[in-house]
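User: I'm new to structure prediction. If I give you an amino acid sequence, what do you actually give back? Let's try with this one:
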Amino acid sequence: MGVVLGIDFGKKRIGIAVTDPERRFTFGRDTLAADGKTDAVRVAAVARAEGATLIALGLPLNVDGSEGPMAALVRKFGAELTAASGLPAAFVDERYTSIEADEHLRERFPRDTRARRAMKDRAAAILILRTFLEHGPIRGSGA
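Assistant: Good question. You get back a string of structure tokens that encode the predicted 3D arrangement of the chain. For your 143 residues, that looks like this:
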């Protein structure tokens, strides 16, 4: 099996989560500030440190299932990450993960918007991993 690294990619922040080697549990790891230049190399370093064998990237699809400009950026980042890490990347439908993560954090931290903002991308990465574990990748996306 092996550890899966979950990624919630954004232009400003990259949320990271991991599974245990048996892929039963998910854990939030980090949120990196995106710089647009070294993101793939920095995430590849996290993947190596965690002993990941696969990367699951959230793919932001439109409500109708089509891909827009942000999905194209995620696919490009996935290719860069695969080149930098040598690991296969699988894409996971992440249409509502950020909203779901925000709702969950709002329940936990009803008044602390700073805490919610700091954890939102990591929480979304956890949801991406859970979606991957429960449903697998988007058909034709690898893994």
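You can read the tokens as a compact description of the fold. Here is one thing that stands out. The beta strands are 3-9, 13-19, 26-33, 52-59, 89-93.
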